[in-house]
């Protein structure tokens, strides 16, 4: 009887966060669909390369690996900033969360700037999708990823503005986790794309 009374009088425990995937479930459907598309691209690239090894190796040497490596570090660092943003909002610190997201978006601009310079250099050399099979894949894959970076930056910017306005809290920050999940997908794809297209011979 006393035990029952103690249970009734005990203060309610705080509601635990939803277990499972972070963010909105719908974003994970979208992420899986995007990864499937990139996966098909990567498999097609591997098959094409197996039939034109010399062409792919020769063309690959003309890519700017330094720029690709710098962009890899840029995206990895931006993902770390996004992780810090999620940690900040879990501590109910909206403004700090917004600052971390702003830093991630800034690095997104750095990535786009470096990649745009690469595209400009290739187009200036007369290289297009029809130059050869390697460049068809290189330009298609990197531009497709380029557009995903832009979309990711838009998502992070929207979340950043809402966080700056105090729109999230320790108990309600699904939007931050949703944006973070998408950005990590963009980062993951580049981590696979860079060695596959720029390095592996």
Automatic annotation (TrEMBL):
It comes from the Bacteria. GO terms for cellular component: plasma membrane. The keyword Transmembrane helix applies. GO terms for molecular function: cytochrome-c oxidase activity. SUPFAM superfamilies: Cytochrome c oxidase subunit III-like. This is Nitric oxide reductase NorE protein. It holds the Pfam family COX3. PROSITE patterns: COX3. Keywords: Membrane, Transmembrane, Transmembrane helix. It is a multi-pass membrane protein. Belongs to the cytochrome c oxidase subunit 3 family. InterPro entries: Cyt_c/ubiquinol_Oxase_su3, Cyt_c_oxidase-like_su3, Cyt_c_oxidase_su3-like_sf, Cyt_c_oxidase_su3_a-hlx. It comes from Thioalbus denitrificans.
């Amino acid at each position: 009887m006393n035990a029952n009374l103690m249970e009734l009088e005990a203060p309610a425990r705080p509601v635990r966060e939803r277990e499972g995937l972070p963010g909105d479930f719908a974003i994970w459907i979208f992420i899986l669909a995007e990864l499937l598309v990139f996966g098909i691209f990567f498999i097609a690239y591997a098959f094409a390369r197996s039939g034109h090894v010399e062409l792919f190796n020769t063309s690959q040497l003309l890519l700017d690996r330094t720029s690709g490596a710098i962009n890899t570090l840029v995206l990895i660092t931006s993902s770390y900033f996004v992780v810090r943003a999620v940690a900040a909002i879990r501590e109910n610190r909206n403004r700090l969360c917004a600052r971390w997201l702003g830093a991630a978006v800034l690095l997104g601009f750095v990535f786009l700037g470096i990649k745009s310079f690469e595209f400009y250099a290739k187009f200036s050399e007369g290289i297009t999708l029809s130059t050869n099979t390697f460049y068809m894949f290189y330009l298609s894959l990197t531009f497709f990823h380029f557009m995903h970076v832009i979309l990711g930056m838009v998502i992070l910017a929207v979340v950043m503005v809402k966080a700056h306005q105090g729109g999230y809290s320790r108990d309600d920050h699904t939007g931050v986790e949703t944006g973070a999940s998408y950005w990590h997908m963009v980062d993951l794809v580049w981590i696979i794309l860079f060695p596959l297209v720029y390095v592996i011979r």
